[in-house]
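ok trying this again, last paste got cut off
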Amino acid sequence: MILNKVLEKQYGKKVKDSTVNKQFNKYKKQYGSSFNAVLQQNGMTASQLKDSIRSNLLLQQAVRDNTKFTDAQLKKQFKSYQPKVTVNQILVSKKSIAENVIKQLKAGKSFSSLAKKYSTDTATKNKGGRISPFDNTNTSLDTNFKKAAFKLKNGEYTKTPVKTQYGYQVIQMVNHPAKGTYKDHESELKTQIVDKRLADSDTLHSVVSKVLKKGNVSIQDKDLQNVLSDYLSTSSKKK
């Protein structure tokens, strides 16, 4: 594909194989024993998945290189920024059960023992309710869950049940790093800004036009949409 070739020529040296492999291994870990089945469902081989990951990273690099980061942008993004937090959680079906769990926590019962006894989340109940660390960019967790979690300090737990799409949850904060200032997190903030721009079709059209022009590839505006759509559909099969 012409776009991939042009991106590779302009940004290939900036996308390291180690970064591709890291992302690939993240998917392997995420899907575990189902990894090969997921690949088959998407009509992909492991090699094709790596190519897909590289394609995404090339486009990400193109957007990054065509983004002028200002202090105003960074400060705006910092308002919604949250560093990665680590929490334990107990999921139950009824509000009354969650209230009972909170009552027992106040009485001194350990979160771990209560998770094992009450939680309906089979993936975490025997691990003290521990879930993977997450930040403000996480899209898999319920919004109410994230809002409640980000308000907690280390060692604190939610004093009222948190209503989510899964039921009622009680959250305990294990590690909530200090947010600091936007200057402390410039790299993460820039990545979050780039990710937002990647999700904006107008931005992608603009960046791809510049990339193709720089690569001396002449293309009509009416054809640009098709080129970009083909590229994105190919590189998003892994999702």
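PB: full thing came through this time. The chain has a mean pLDDT of 90.
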